[in-house]
Write a structure and sequence with these properties.
Elements lengths: L2 E5 L3 H12 L6 E4 L15 H4 L12 H4 L4 E4 L4 E5 L4 E4 L4 E9 L3 E3 L12 E2 L4 H8 L7 E5 L3 H12 L3 E5 L12 H14 L2 E3 L4 E6 L3 E6 L4 E3 L2 E4 L3 E3 L2 H5 L8 E3 L10 E3 L4 E5 L2 E3 L4 H16 L10 E6 L2 E7 L6 E6 L4 E8 L2 E10 H17 L5 H6 L14
Parallel strand pairs: 1-2, 1-6, 2-3, 6-18, 8-15, 9-10, 9-15, 10-11, 17-19
Antiparallel strand pairs: 4-5, 5-6, 7-16, 12-13, 13-14, 19-20, 21-22, 22-25, 23-24, 24-25
Helix pairs in contact: 1-8
This protein binds flavin-adenine dinucleotide.
The site of flavin-adenine dinucleotide has 37 residues, from helix 1, helix 8 and strand 21.
């Protein structure tokens, strides 16, 4: 009997499964996971799991009760190799065929790799899954010399965790500063200062020419001739959406599986959600790689597979822990926006981004409580369409005052 099939048991796939169960669906529901374990939360991989404070079994993505529901089939170590849209079925890599009425593709993303990773040294890692972290952890101890290629959010989280563990850390960044896509200079200055004070050595405007060694990694050679002796290398240069099976069955892919506001592909029986999808709206298109977005999209896609169609319209929101501080952002940051920077009373800084005169994003870096409060107010403003005058933002003692104002046209 045909039922619902979800490919990928990350945050999007699991939230979809939960939404489907909550709506009382009692037909077959297959959740298919290429990984060899129960679904787990991914963000702690670069933080508490890497440091050893938590394990994946502490961080389940699905309640135990769901696994014991009748007609719920969880397949682990199972990769969907093929989607047959004509016969409405998926084929697993072991040859089994599962028919579907409706299908959700929630295959997420994979870590982008560097061509020089192919030189075969086992001490070159990426971090996307628990098995990646288990391998990397062997090199994670006091005194270990670590080179991180890429000063993005995950690279910096690993750098912070590594310094706490007593590793020596070099970070190689291709750009002139950190997190250029989301942090304005004033906020980046604070973040960089904290990392430098913690002992991170940064190499900006830098690229790797080769990784050398004799049976195991011994050094990273930079294009400028500098040689960084090391025991392990982490490549953290972003990720690419895992769209291969969608492309192979002829679905539209444009740096992400193309979906409409209901998270439907051009095939009305196939949905996509999370890091793998690109949402097309009247105003353009976007693809996000963050926890909140993937879960919210999963929930809406799950509901839309069994119930009335609801549009997805969440305000993007993300966080990244760095030591005892945090980066948070709500909304959409684009180059060329007008930016107002606000000091958060010595506890950090926030930037308010305006596009064509309207508030478009709020970003903050600093102590967790103050940042969370600021970005939460900013997110509410974005959700309610409130766009305060930039001069008033700069001088306001308490941002909550703006929540009492009506939305601006
Ligand atoms: C190390 C790390 C730290 C992060 N930290 C933060 C953070 O602090 N804050 C934040 O907002 N976001 C963070 N993120 C991002 C966040 O975790 C992701 O946005 C979210 O996990 C995406 O969920 P997803 O379900 O779309 O994809 P994924 O979590 O990637 O799940 C996709 C699943 O599909 C499986 N799969 C792929 N292809 C197939 C196939 N053909 N058949 C079967 N299964 C398949 C994959 O193995 C994977 O298990 C972090 C990500 C990483 C990797």
């Amino acid at each position: 009997m045909s039922g619902l099939v979800i490919i990928g048991a990350g945050h999007a796939g699991c939230r979809a499964a939960e939404a489907i169960c909550n709506l009382g669906w009692d037909g077959p529901l297959h959740l298919i996971n290429a990984e060899a374990c129960r679904p787990y939360e991914r963000p702690p991989l670069s933080k508490a799991i890497l440091s050893g404070e938590r394990s994946v079994s502490d961080l389940p993505l699905l309640r135990d009760a769901i696994f014991s529901r009748p007609n719920f089939f969880y397949e682990q170590s199972a990769r969907v190799a093929l989607i047959d849209r004509v016969n409405q079925s998926v084929t697993l890599n072991d040859g089994r065929v599962i028919p579907y009425l409706r299908l959700l593709i929630a295959t997420g993303a994979t870590a982008r790799s560097l061509p020089l990773q192919q030189n075969g040294y086992p001490q070159i890692y990426s971090i996307r899954t628990i098995s990646d972290v288990e391998g990397f952890k062997a090199n994670f101890h006091a005194g270990a010399r670590l080179v991180i290629i890429g000063g993005g959010l995950i690279g910096l989280e690993v750098a912070a965790t590594a310094r706490k563990a007593g590793c020596q850390v070099h970070v190689i960044e291709a750009g002139p500063r950190l997190l250029m896509r989301i942090l304005p200079e004033e906020l980046e200055g604070e973040l960089r200062r904290d990392h430098v004070q913690a002992g991170i050595a940064f190499h900006f405007d830098s690229a790797v020419s080769q990784i050398t060694g004799n049976g195991r990694v011994e050094a990273v050679q930079l294009v400028n001739g500098e040689r960084l002796a090391c025991d392990a290398v982490l490549v953290s240069i972003g990720s690419v959406p895992d769209t291969a099976i969608a492309e192979a069955c002829g679905l539209k892919v444009d740096n992400g599986i193309a979906v409409d506001e209901y998270l439907r592909t051009e095939d009305p029986n196939i949905f996509a959600a999370g890091d793998v999808c690109r949402v097309f709206t009247q105003d353009g298109s976007y693809r996000l790689e963050c926890w909140r977005n993937s879960g919210d999209q999963g929930e809406i896609a799950g509901q839309n597979m069994v119930g009335d169609l609801r549009p997805y319209s969440g305000t993007p929101w993300m966080w990244s822990d760095q030591y005892d501080k945090v980066v948070q952002a709500a909304g959409v940051v684009n180059p060329g926006q007008e930016i107002v920077v606000k000091d958060l009373g010595g506890a950090g800084k926030a930037s308010f981004h305006y596009e064509v005169g309207r508030l478009s994003a709020v970003v903050a870096y600093g102590s967790i409580g103050v940042v969370a409060k600021t970005v939460s107010v900013g997110r509410t403003m974005l959700e309610r369409g409130i766009s305060p005058n930039p001069d008033d933002i700069a001088t306001a003692a308490d941002l909550r005052i703006f929540l009492r104002t009506p939305a601006t046209a």
